[in-house]
Amino acid sequence: MAGELDRGRIAKYVVARRGSLGLTQEQLAERAGVTVKTIYNLEAGDRWPQARTRSAIEDALQWRPGDLIRIGEGNEPAGAQPPVDADRALRELGELNAYFADLRADPGDKRRMALAFLRALYGEPDGR
Fold it and tell me: CA-to-CA distance for 24 and 43, rounded, in angstroms?
């Protein structure tokens, strides 16, 4: 962080991003795990949050790490995390539902292999 950050610019970007996500200050604070006062102070350009708090706010705004500093230095955010494509997500959930319905109906190897894979993936003990 070389030099002084433009807190007013940061404030405008945070307000705009929060609005584009359809969030209130309270909702953003809840997502970030901070107080509403923290969000209010950031949006007013009054106070600069600590690194851990900035990281949580960036995450809640679906920004990349360090974007608040980049904005304050006069640059654009590195890029918002890609928005969720609701239609695609619903299609994929439908596919998963159909797959798991097949597994529920299969008492054999296919089901055992899928369970073993999921246990390994999530680090759970084998339930034999």
Answer: 12
